[in-house]
Amino acid sequence: MIIVMKPTAGQAEIDHVVEKVEAVGCKTTLLEGTNRKVIAVIGDKRDIPPEYWDTIPGVEKAVPILTPYKLASREVKKSDTEIKINDQVLGGKKIGVIAGPCAVESQDQINFIAEGVKKAGAIALRGGAFKPRTSPYSFQGLKEEGLEYLARAREATGLAIVTEILSPEHIDLVSSYVDVLQIGTRNMANFLLLEAVGKCNKPVILKRGMSATLDEFLLAGEYILSHGNPNVILCERGIRTFETHTRFTLSLSIVPHLKLLTHLPVIVDPSHGTGVRELVAPMSRGAIAVGADGLILEVHKDPEKSFVDGPQALTIESFEKLMKESGAVAESIGREI
Amino acid sequence: MIIVMKPTAGQAEIDHVVEKVEAVGCKTTLLEGTNRKVIAVIGDKRDIPPEYWDTIPGVEKAVPILTPYKLASREVKKSDTEIKINDQVLGGKKIGVIAGPCAVESQDQINFIAEGVKKAGAIALRGGAFKPRTSPYSFQGLKEEGLEYLARAREATGLAIVTEILSPEHIDLVSSYVDVLQIGTRNMANFLLLEAVGKCNKPVILKRGMSATLDEFLLAGEYILSHGNPNVILCERGIRTFETHTRFTLSLSIVPHLKLLTHLPVIVDPSHGTGVRELVAPMSRGAIAVGADGLILEVHKDPEKSFVDGPQALTIESFEKLMKESGAVAESIGREI
Amino acid sequence: MIIVMKPTAGQAEIDHVVEKVEAVGCKTTLLEGTNRKVIAVIGDKRDIPPEYWDTIPGVEKAVPILTPYKLASREVKKSDTEIKINDQVLGGKKIGVIAGPCAVESQDQINFIAEGVKKAGAIALRGGAFKPRTSPYSFQGLKEEGLEYLARAREATGLAIVTEILSPEHIDLVSSYVDVLQIGTRNMANFLLLEAVGKCNKPVILKRGMSATLDEFLLAGEYILSHGNPNVILCERGIRTFETHTRFTLSLSIVPHLKLLTHLPVIVDPSHGTGVRELVAPMSRGAIAVGADGLILEVHKDPEKSFVDGPQALTIESFEKLMKESGAVAESIGREI
Amino acid sequence: MIIVMKPTAGQAEIDHVVEKVEAVGCKTTLLEGTNRKVIAVIGDKRDIPPEYWDTIPGVEKAVPILTPYKLASREVKKSDTEIKINDQVLGGKKIGVIAGPCAVESQDQINFIAEGVKKAGAIALRGGAFKPRTSPYSFQGLKEEGLEYLARAREATGLAIVTEILSPEHIDLVSSYVDVLQIGTRNMANFLLLEAVGKCNKPVILKRGMSATLDEFLLAGEYILSHGNPNVILCERGIRTFETHTRFTLSLSIVPHLKLLTHLPVIVDPSHGTGVRELVAPMSRGAIAVGADGLILEVHKDPEKSFVDGPQALTIESFEKLMKESGAVAESIGREI
Predict the structure, then answer these.
(1) Reported ipTM exceeds the 0.90 cut
(2) Which runs of consecutive H residues, i.e. helices, occur in chain D?
(3) A43 touches chain D (CB under 8 A)
(4) Which positions in chain A touch B168 (Cβ < 8 Å)?
(5) Which domains does chain A have, with CATH numbers?
C-alpha cells in the first residue's frame, strides 16, 4: 500500500502514520517527492480497508497495491477450476448451457421444456421456485411445489437442476431437491446468504450484482470460498447503466478480464442481461466468442403465456437454433458446446 | 396502459391482443395512427408487469400509465405521514437527526457518542451491531453484544436506538433491543427481509439500493406497507454512477421528487452518500434545503480509530458545528432541527 | 403520441390540450381510463419534442410512439447500406478491419504499420493527425504533417486512409488528404461538425458519444444523413459506466440492436472501448460474433513508445494473431474478414 | 507516481522501467514489497499520462500521485477567484443568479423576461441564439438575429448577457454582442473551442460534460486557463446516470468538492440538471446550501409556448418566489443573493 500525505503534512503527522503502520505489523519507507511525501507500506494486510488509513491526520489518500481477494485469485491457484455438476463438468473445453423457464409453473410445463432443452444440448435445467420480484403484487413462485416439479423433471431427463435460493433458512429445503444453488443479482451482497452457501457443498452460481465492480464481484465469490465451498461459478448478467434500449447492459468485457484474474469458471446470462428476445442469440454467440465457460438462458414452452419475464424467453425452436449457431462459434475458438 | 403494435402487425394479431386484454378484465380502444396501430387498455391492473404484454406476437411495446405502487402513493394518502420514534416524531416540521458510529465497538465508545450527539440535538442513536462488509476478512460487528451496548446507551441518554438488520431470522433478537430497524442499501431488494419487517411493528428506515430507480425504491417501501407496517422512512444514501471523486453520488433531487409522489418521510445519509468527511456538512445543509425530513450521520469518538468507515465520520465537535449550521438552514425554510 | 393527463385535470385543461394538438395539424381521441384521462394524438410530428407537451397545464407526461429519427431507420430503407471505401465495401458479407496507430508520429512509423496491417488483412489505415486530448499538456498530434504521412502511406500500400476531424474549418484540408472522416466520441453531439460532414461526400465513421443513448446516436447519424451524405458508419466505442476495470464499458448489445433498427453499417472499437491490451482480441471476436460489420483497432510498431494511448495498442504480431482468430469466428457465422 | 510491477517481473524489466523513468528526467526508488515490487517515481511530470507507463513490459499499473491540472488548482492559487461580469462580481459573498429563456424567440419575449428577472434580482440575462439540438429537425435558434435581441435587452435593462457559443468561428461575432460566453455540456471536451475561448478575454461559463469526471472537468477549465483567459466559471448541470425520474442527476456534491480543489467560482444549473419544473426551486436552495457561487436558471414568459426546453422553465412569478426562498437560504449560510 502507498500512503500519500497532504502537501501540508508535517513531520509529526508522518511520524504518527509510521507508528500506526508499524502497529499492524508492516514496514515503511518514506519517499520525498517533488510536491508530496509518500509512505510506502510493505507487508500483506489486505484485510485492513484502505479507507482506514484515510482517516489519519495528514493523509491525503491510501492506494492499495494488492487485490482485496486471495482465494479467488489466479495468484493463489493458476489452473482453471472445473466444477462437477452431476455427470457434467463446467469450466473445461466444453461450454455448458443451462436452460429453462424463469419460473416453474406446472409439471407439464417443466417436463416439456426439460426434454426440449436436453435434446438441444443443455447440460442442466434452470427454473425458479422462489422468485424475487420487484413488486409485492407480482407472482412470487410456486415454492416447494416448484422444487418437486423440478426434481421430477430431473428424474425424467437426467438433467441437473439449478434454482435460485433467497435466504439461509431455505438451504436445507432447496438443497434436498436441487443440484446447483443460484444467488441472484439482488443477493450478491447478501453476505449472510453467501456465508450460508459457503458452508454447503453444492455448486453455486453467483450472479454479479447489477452495480457490482469487478473487485466486489470477486469478493462476493471470496465469501463463499472462504467458508469452505470451492465450487463457485461466476455469472455476468448485465449491469445498470444509463442505457435504456436494453433492460441492463451486458458487460461482456468482464468475462475475459475475470478469466485473467481468477481461476473460477465464468458464465453469462444474455436473457436477463438484455431483456430483449431478439438480442439473446447474438449475445450468446458474443459471450462464447469472448471466452465464457457457459450460458444460462431462459427457454419457455410458449413465451406468451409465461407468468414472468416473458419478453426475453426463447421457444424450444429458437433455442435449438441458438445452440447450433453457438456451437459453430464455440468450434471456431477451439471449444465445443 | 397503451399497447403499441408493430408496423407489420395485421388484424389477426390485433384481435389476439384484444382477446388477451379482455381476458384479464380490461377494456380496449383501438387507435389507428399514421404509422402504427395502438391499443389503449382501460382498467387498473398494475399487478401485471408491462413486460407481460411485450411477449404477445405483433406487440412492439407496452407503455404503463399508472405508477406500479399504490399504498406508498400520495394518490392514496394525501397528507404527510408522521412516524413516532419513542417520544419523537419524524416527518413533521422538525427535522430529525439520527447520529452515531458506523459500528458499535464498546460500551464506553457508544455511551460517549450517545451523550455527545444527544447534547447536540440528535433525536436517535445509530450504531451497527451486524455489519454487512464487502470483504469476508473485514470486521463484521459485535452482534448481540453490540445490541446490549446500544440498549444501555438508551438507558443512559433516553435516545431511541436505530440499527441495521440483515436477515429475517434476526428480527426477534434485534427488535427486543432496538426501536427502529434499518434496511441497508444492499438489502433494499431482499424481498423476504422486506416482508419480514412488514410484519413487525417497529419503524423501518429503508435505504435506497445503490442502483435502484425511484419506482423500485417506492416498490420496496410498498412491500413493507403491504405486509401491514405503515411506519416506513425512506433514505437516500447515494447511487452508483461513473463519478469517483465521491464513493457514491448523493442524488438530492430524489428527495423533493419523492415528496411529490409519496406521503412517507424522506431522510438523507450524507456520510455514506459521499464517503468524504469534508463533504458531510455541506451535503447535510443541502439535504435540508431540498426538503429532507431528517439526516442520518456517522459520528465517532475518534474517527481515526474507527473499525469501519472512518473517512466519512465526524467528531462530536464537528457534529455540533454541523447541527448549528444545519439548524440555520432549517430555519430559513421554515423548519427546525 | 399519447398525452397522459394528471388525475386532477378538468375538462377545460383537456379542451386546451386538444386545441394545441389540432393547432399543429394532428387529430385526437380521448380515452377515459379508470384513474386517468389520456389523449391519443394521431399524426406524424416527430419534429416536435415530447417535452413540448409536458408544459401544458394539466399534462402529466407525453409518451412518443414513433422513433425520433427517420432516414436512419429500417422503416424507410429495409436493405443494409453498403459503403464504398475506395476499392473496398463496408456493410456486406466481408467484415472490414481498419487498423493503425492512435497518433501518426513519423513517416517511418506509419509506413511500417501500414504495411503490417495490410499484409494481415486490414482494409484501411487509421491514424490521428489532430488529436483531442483531455489534458492541454498532452501531445496534440502532428496536424497537416501527419496528414501528409498518411497520404504517402496510402501511396505505398493502397490502403484507404481514415482520420479524425475536429472542426468544420478543417474539412477542406483533411478531405484533400484522406478517404474517410471520423467523428470522435467527444464530438458526436457537435452538431455543427455533423452538419459540415453531412455536406461533404466522404464516408463518415461516427463514434458513439460515451454517454449517448441509442436514440441520440441514431439522431447524430440522422444529422449527417439529413444534410445529404448517405455514407454513415456507426461505431460503438464504449460507454461511461460505474465500471473501472476497463476504461469504458464496451456495450456489444447495441450492435445487434442497431442492426434491427437501422440499415447503416455498425463497427466496433475494442481498443478504446476497453483500454486494456489483453481484452482487445477477445472483444474483437465478441464484436464479430454479435454481428458487427467491422472493427477499428489500434496497432503500433512498438506500443511501449507510443506517444498516446499505448496500453490498448497491439503489435503487428498480435494483430496478425487477432485477425486469424477473428477470421475463424467470422466464418462460423457465415462471414469473412 | 508509483509504478507497480507484475508479480512475474524480473530484474531486466525493472531495470528497463528505471531507464525509461530516468530518460524523462525523474528519479526512482525501488520498494520490495511482500508480493510485488514497486518503483516510486520522484519528479513532477504530470504531462505524461499514466497510461504511457502501463505499456512497458512487466508493469502492472501506474498510479499518479499529483492532480493532472495545475493552474486550476488551489495549490497554485489559494484565494477564491472573483470574476467581473460588467458591474457585477461572481465568486464573492454575493450569490449571482443568471436567468433567462432557453432560446431567444423575439425582442418582446426577451425584453419582457429581462425586465422580470432584473426586478427579481438576477445579475445577468441568459438566452440561446445558437442552439445545439439532439434532433436535426428541431428549432436551432435565431442565430445573429437572436444576438441582436439580446444586445437590445441589455440596453433596456443594464443586465450583462450570457449566451452559448458552439464553434471557434463564431467567437468574433458572438463576442461583439455578449458579455459572457457559455460552453455547453456537449462541448466541454471540444478542445478547439476551449482553446479559442482561452484566447479571448470574455468570462466563460464552462458547463460540465454530462459524463465528465471531476478531473476531466478541471482539465477542461485548465485548457481555457492555459491559453490565457483566467475568467473561468465552472457549472454543474447534471450528469448521466441510470436515474430516469429526472432528465439528468444533478450532482451537488461536486460543488463543495470543487471548492476544496480549485479557486474558480462554481455555479449550478438546476433547470437542465433536473428537467422537471417542480424540482427547480428546491434544487436551487440545495445548490446554495452546499456552497454554489451562483445559479443559472431558465425563465420564460409563458413556459407553455416556449420553442425549446419548456418543462423545466419557470414563469416570472415562480422565479420571484424562488429568489426570495433562495435568498433566505443564502442568508442562513452568511451569504446574500
Answers:
(1) yes
(2) 11-23, 51-54, 107-120, 144-157, 171-177, 191-198, 214-226, 254-261, 270-274, 277-290, 316-332
(3) yes
(4) 167, 169
(5) 2-63 (3.30.70.1140), 83-332 (3.20.20.70)
